[in-house]
Design a protein that fits this description.
Helices cover 26% and strands 21% of the residues. By secondary structure, the chain is of the alpha+beta class.
């Protein structure tokens, strides 16, 4: 495909958004930048060489458009449409604590704990 393509359509074809209407909402909401300029029209004429910046799942994506799409194909085909220039994700601590392998205390552990507290055996 030569020439240009609608911005919302390309974002959907490249599989950044699950539906085209979600892509349209992001663009019309002013959440997508093309070459550093905020774009609010979903029908913006996107061409190879443009650099897109937008937020996706708590990450800032910086994408360089290399090809235009004819259809919404499989993921490998969609990944061939762009170069990902996003900064590497920040190192964040894991959301959940790690399992230490201790589990529930055994009967012997509970008896020993009561003896150390000064409680009597029942």
């Amino acid at each position: 495909m030569t020439g240009s393509q609608r911005l919302d359509q390309w974002l959907w074809h490249a599989r950044f958004f699950k539906t085209r209407s979600l892509a349209t909402k992001q663009v019309t909401g002013g959440h997508v930048r093309v070459d550093g300029e905020r774009v609010t029209k979903a029908a913006f004429a996107l061409k190879p060489g443009h650099v897109l910046t937008f937020r996706q799942a708590r990450q800032i994506k910086v994408i360089e458009v290399t090809h235009l799409a004819n259809r919404r194909g499989p993921a490998p085909e969609a990944q061939a449409l762009y170069l990902d220039r996003s900064p590497p994700p920040e190192d964040t601590p894991p959301a959940n604590p790690k399992f230490e392998g201790k589990g529930r205390p055994s009967g012997k552990d509970r008896r020993n704990a009561r003896l150390h507290k000064g409680g009597a055996l029942e």
